[in-house]
Amino acid sequence: MILYFNSGSCSLASHIALEETGLEYAAVRIDLSKDQHQTPAYLAKNPWGRVPALDVFGTILTENVAILQYLADLVPEKKLLPAPGTMSRAQATRWMALLSSTVHVAFRPLFRPSRLASTTVGQQDVFNTGLRALNEVLSKLEAELAGRATILESGFSLCDAYAFVFALWTQRPNVRELLVPTPNLHLIAKSVAARPAAQAAMQSEGVQFLERLAHALNVERA
């Protein structure tokens, strides 16, 4: 299998998942800052021009929600997600869908305002409006994560690996001092960061989970 990823993007969730499976794979970086996702070669693999994309012996699978479930089902003995057909699996899918469709999307106006407005004034308005919306999303996420060491009651799952991505995003310099405290999210992220699979994926991508920074910001803003 071949994973196409961009460092520090949402594809990190699939990268961690591959490491958790213990299966053989190769990782190919698609540098979004250099528009490598818009090359004819990559668009032939994923016409949407996004990451992640997983080449499974010639068949291309895209979207984290699909990739995470596929990988978990390849190694059911590792219990990376609850068994298919159970309410626990439905709840896990619900969490992954929420992270994909609501949490991820809420970051976009802050990271890519140029996709939503063409003028400087318009982009600043997008940023400001997006910041308010993102803080509302993070506040709701924090409330739902209260009292949880992991997202699912059964323990670590690939839902936690997916949530880890957004904990990293809250640490980005251009937004970290503007966001509401997220200690519950960071508690889960801390446990994910300690796992060998996450450490291997982060090392490969050149990213770090800044535990001390996250803790300091949450204390100061609490």
Overview of the structural elements:
55% of the residues lie in helices and 7% in strands. It has 9 helices and 4 strands, in the order βαβαββααααααα. By secondary structure, it is α+β, with helices and mostly antiparallel strands. The N and C termini lie far apart (44 Å). It has a 4-stranded mixed beta sheet, covered by helices on one side. α1 (12-21) packs parallel to α3 and α6 packs across α7. The protein has 2 domains: 2-78, Glutaredoxin (3-Layer(aba) Sandwich), CATH 3.40.30; 87-221, Glutathione S-transferase Yfyf (Class Pi), Chain A, domain 2, CATH 1.20.1050.10.
pLDDT averaged residue by residue: 93
How is the biggest beta sheet arranged? 4 strands, mixed
| Strand arrangement in the largest pleated sheet | 2-1-3-4
Oligomer: single chain
Enumerate the spans where pLDDT stays under 50 for 5 or more consecutive residues.
216-222
CATH class of the largest domain: Mainly Alpha
* Silhouette: globular
Q: Give the DSSP E fraction (strand runs of 2 or more residues).
A: 5-15%
**In terms of structural class, how would the helical and strand content be classed?**
alpha+beta
User: H/E order of the elements?
Assistant: EHEHEEHHHHHHH
CATH fold name of the largest domain: Glutathione S-transferase Yfyf (Class Pi), Chain A, domain 2
Q: How many runs of DSSP E, i.e. beta strands?
A: 4
* Rg computed from alpha carbons, rounded to a whole number of angstroms: 17 Å
| CATH architecture grouping of the largest domain | Up-down Bundle
Count of alpha and pi helical runs: 9
Distance between the termini: 44 Å
